[in-house]
């Protein structure tokens, strides 16, 4: 009996120990797996952190960033009374104000010769450009530089001159029911350097446009000399002046031909005013930007940091690193580029040119803009989709 009891006791202890051993081994495997996951996450975070440090310290170290208010009221955002319905906000569609300042020095100040809304639409893999013509008659209201308060109807390009990007954004939001919170500004002095950083842009140019490009190049020489004298008189040290050389001047080879335009040529092309009035001028500016986006698509991902580093000194923006990174996925798509102008004579049928001001129904224009930017997410899509389709370039 004693032997049997001992045997039984041995069997019971053995059975108990085997179960505990398996549990311990399983526990060690779980802990090991968790440790591996933790190590992997640490490595990823270190690499990601290093990438952000590299981006902030090297790639965009020369980017000019300006913090603007995030107060919706100060930016002219009124959700309840907005023409654009934001009840179904979609983070995959982001609107950014883009301004082109026609200044002859390196400052980001002056009249906004270009006022554009750049829509990064990751939902439809599309970059959309909405150009608001500079002579558009709008209401400008709010505090500008030096505490000056404005409450007046005038051309939209004055808002940037009076109060910088914050007032210009507020003017867009108040007049077109938008909700723009960030901006990018490019000085035309710098635009030539930006185009050169891309290796130029390929454009179809007519015989008459070649003549106008050459005319604008000659004007640019005089404008630069005039700006140098002004800067010298005002004690401003500036070495960032456009340099026009003999090889910039073009020779027409036919009625229409394709050219690889360098920076000075592309800027002169975008400033043509004697062909097609201001509508033709805006369309040419859009074509240059479209060509630049097309050039981006030819770059490999490994080339982006160097490209961004080249562009950074010529841009002023309120966008953060996180904002910029968040919009990059669209570059990995087969993105399309679409563009409209506001006003458009075919869409804004009430358009009038009164004493050099473009007067039109801003509310109808805002609805067309909403349909263009948000497509089926806009409350005006069904009403305006055919108009949008016919006005897209």
Q: Looking across the biggest beta sheet, what order are the strands in? A: 1-10-7-2-3-4-11
CATH architecture of the largest domain: 3-Layer(aba) Sandwich
Which CATH top level class of the largest domain fits? Alpha Beta
- Assembly type of the chains comes to single chain
**Beta-strand percent range:** 15-25%
Structural class: alpha/beta
Shape: globular
- The averaged pLDDT comes out at 81
Number of strands: 13
Radius of gyration: 29 Å
CATH superfamily of the largest domain: LCP protein
**What is the end-to-end distance?**
100 Å
Q: What fraction, in percent, of the residue positions are helical?
A: 40-55%
- Listing every helix as H and every strand as E from the N terminus to the C terminus, the arrangement reads HEEEEEEHEHEHEHHHEHEEEHH
Please give the domain count.
2
Query: Describe the biggest sheet?
Result: 7 strands, mixed
CATH topology of the largest domain: Aminopeptidase
Count of DSSP H/I helices: 10
Unreliable residue stretches: 1-16, 42-57
């Amino acid at each position: 009996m004693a032997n049997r009891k001992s045997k039984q006791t041995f069997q019971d202890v053995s059975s108990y120990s085997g179960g505990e051993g398996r549990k311990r081994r399983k526990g060690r495997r779980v802990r090991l797996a968790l440790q591996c996951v933790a190590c992997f996450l640490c490595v990823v975070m270190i690499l990601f952190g290093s990438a952000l440090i590299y981006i902030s310290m090297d790639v965009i170290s020369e980017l000019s960033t300006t913090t603007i208010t995030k107060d919706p009221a100060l930016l002219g955002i009124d959700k309840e009374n907005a023409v654009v319905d934001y009840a179904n906000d979609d983070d995959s569609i982001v609107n950014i104000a883009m301004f082109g300042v026609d200044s002859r020095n390196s400052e980001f100040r002056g009249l906004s010769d270009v006022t554009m809304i750049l829509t990064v639409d990751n939902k439809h893999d599309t970059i959309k450009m909405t150009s608001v013509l500079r002579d558009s008659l709008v209401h400008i209201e709010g505090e500008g530089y030096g505490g000056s308060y404005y409450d007046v109807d005038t051309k939209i390009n004055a808002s940037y001159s009076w109060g910088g990007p914050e007032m210009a954004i507020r003017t867009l939001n108040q007049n077109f029911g938008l909700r723009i919170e960030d901006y990018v500004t490019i000085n035309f002095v710098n635009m030539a350097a930006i185009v050169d950083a891309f290796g130029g842009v390929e454009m179809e140019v007519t015989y008459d446009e070649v003549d106008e490009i050459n005319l604008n190049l000659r004007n640019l020489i005089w404008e630069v000399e005039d700006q140098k004298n002004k800067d010298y008189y005002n004690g401003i040290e500036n070495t960032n002046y456009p340099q026009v050389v003999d090889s910039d001047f073009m020779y027409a080879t036919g009625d229409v031909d394709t050219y690889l335009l360098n920076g000075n040529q592309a800027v002169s092309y975008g400033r043509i005013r004697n062909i097609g009035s201001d509508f033709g001028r805006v369309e040419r500016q859009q074509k240059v930007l479209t060509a630049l986006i097309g050039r981006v698509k030819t770059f490999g991902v490994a080339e982006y940091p160097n490209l961004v580093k080249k562009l950074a000194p010529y841009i002023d923006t309120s966008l953060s690193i996180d904002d910029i990174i968040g919009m990059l996925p669209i570059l990995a798509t087969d993105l399309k580029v679409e563009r409209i102008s506001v006003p458009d004579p075919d869409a804004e049928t009430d358009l009038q040119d009164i004493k050099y001001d473009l007067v039109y129904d801003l509310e109808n224009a805002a609805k067309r803009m909403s349909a263009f930017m948000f497509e089926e997410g806009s409350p005006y899509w069904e009403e305006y989709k055919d108009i949008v389709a016919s006005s897209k370039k």
